[in-house]
Amino acid sequence: MKIDGHVHTPFCPHGSPDSLKSYAERAIELGFKEISFTEHAPLPEGFSDPVPEKDSALPMEQLELYIHSILEIKKAYSKEIRINLGFEIDYIEGFEAATSKFLNNYGEIMDDSILSVHFLLNNGNYYCLDYSEEGFAEICRAAGSVEDTYNLYYRTVEKSILSDLGSWKPKRIGHITLAHKFQLLFPAPGQDLERISSLLDLIKAGGYELDYNTAGLRKKHCQNPYPYNSAARLAIEKGIPLVYGSDAHMAEDTGADYQAFERLITGLPLSSE
């Protein structure tokens, strides 16, 4: 059954104004039987969004409208496709209690959710990992090197996997190799797959799923999915369930590059790393 488990919405401040209807109809057109709207959950109270536009997540004042709108589209298309109400939850080091509070308040209504790392804490300052190549370079300067930045990201992902966020903590870990978004400008260190393997062991031990996110294929400085091919194969070898996600921020990207996921799970040859 074709499932797109990572789809954004017009409520995303850094996305497109495409309607929920257009996302749903695109998925139906492509033969998907299920999609999860996983909008970026509101950032925790007290956390200052480090990106210039302050547009990383759904504003809290739009949260109830988002929930109502997803419930409406679920009902409207219930005969054509299963639509899940969900969130992409940011793990932010130091804000675990506030994140748990949000999940306790809204977890019961969630059909699906993803736990992702976008923000890195370094020497008391927060940085957005994937905002821009200039922003990534800034993190590298602050952390000490490109290798240190990758290691900081993986340490933070490890903390997200091990964190106690309560009974509503998401069971799917998002785009585990997001540090590769600018890899053609800032190549990964040589021990990268070894580091990812240790994270996969934690994911396996915790009973989590893994987001197979094809957005990286659409990024000019990445051109690989998250996780990249050899890491994805390693996850399969370890028995970790992978869930395809387009990470669409516009309706036309719903279901994008699904064939890469099909080739992966059927064992067909993939593009070179």
Automatic annotation (TrEMBL):
Residues 4-215 form the PHP domain. Transmembrane segments: none annotated. Gene3D superfamilies: Metal-dependent hydrolases. It comes from Metabacillus sediminis. This is Histidinol-phosphatase. GO terms for molecular function: histidinol-phosphatase activity. It is an enzyme of class 3 (hydrolase). SUPFAM superfamilies: PHP domain-like. Its EC number is 3.1.3.15. CDD domains: PHP_HisPPase_Hisj_like (cd12110). InterPro entries: Histidinol_P_phosphatase_HisJ, PHP_dom, Pol/histidinol_Pase-like. Keywords: Amino-acid biosynthesis, Histidine biosynthesis, Hydrolase. Pathway: Amino-acid biosynthesis; L-histidine biosynthesis; L-histidine from 5-phospho-alpha-D-ribose 1-diphosphate: step 8/9. Belongs to the PHP hydrolase family. HisK subfamily. Pfam families: PHP (PF02811). NCBIfam families: hisJ_fam, PRK08123.1. It catalyses: L-histidinol phosphate + H2O = L-histidinol + phosphate.
